[in-house]
Amino acid sequence: TFGGVGGLNPYQIGYGTQVASIDTNHAKTGFANTGYSNDCYINGEGLFIVGTLNSEDGEELDEFTGEAIGNLYYTRVGMFDFDSAGFLVDSTGQLVFGVPVGDLGDESANREGLVAIRYDASEDGDNAGEGRLPIRNISIGTDGMITCIGNDGIRYGLAADGSGELLPLEGEDRVEKEECLAIAMANFDNPSGLEMVGNSYYQPTGNTGEVNYYQAGTNNMGTIKTGGLEMSGTDISQEFADMIMTQRGFQANSRIVSVVDSMLEEVVNLKR
pLDDT per residue over 11-40, tens digit each? Predict the structure, then answer.
């Protein structure tokens, strides 16, 4: 005894059924062809990095990397296109970020090493002065490197410093591709710790672990396949089967209640 009363054995009261947990399925799914050359599918691990740039009092930015980077989101949906200002954006207008081609090696870039992918589309910019605008035949390689054909017929890459300059990859003035930008990807120690924030975007939480940024196709990051998007991860046939099983289970439990009620009714009627 303790405190003048006797001990009791523990007992458990059932509370029926409830949801045990809601998990995010990060399993890779198949390629859905769209026929649009700027749609990107990740063939392997990794997530695209999109986000915003900070602008003070609505002023135009002159830096597109480092401290100018605002919120970052992560997604497997690669529905990309260039806007009128020359930025590579996704379907909701978030900017797509990249890293210099081949510059990282085995190293992971940090947040300050990301660069908003863009080309200078202004009428008084260097690209216009060199007769490179407008551009056409934009292509994205399996390693994420973006190239295009200028108005002068030369193939160009996007400057890795974020200046927006189109760098020639052909001719006497050609530069090495390491001076150009490629689409970046991110991976996490624990992808299941990512939090869904809508529009197919994820953000890290305290349980996500360290985030690493690499060029697409390097350091175990998936390669990029253009012309399509990732299919839905929902298996419709399996979901229908689970729904039928759940419904039948509820129906069976309801019948048990009815049977018990009938048995008790018979017991009561025996008194007559």
Answer: 776 666 677 777 777 778 889 999 999 999
Sign of torsion, CA 96 99 105 107?
negative
**What single-letter amino acid sits at 160?**
A
With CA atoms as reference, report the closest residue to 46 among 187, 184, 210, 141.
Answer: 187
DSSP of the chain:
-BTTB-------------------------EEE---TTEEEEESS-EEEEEEE--GGGPPPS--BGGGEEEEEEES-EE-EE-TTSBEE-TTSPEEEEEETT-STTPPB-GGG-EE-B----TTSHHHHTT-PSPEEEEE-TT-BEEEE-TTS-EEEEBTTSS-PEEESSSTT---GGGBEEEEEEEES-GGG-EEEETTEEE--TTS--EEEEETTSTTPPEEEESEEEPP---HHHHHHHHHHHHHHHHHHHHHHHHHHHHHHHHHHTT-
Q: How many CB atoms lie within 10 A of CB 214?
A: 23
Residue in the structure block whose two tokens are 């995010």? 24
What whole-number percentage of the chain has pLDDT above 70?
A: 92
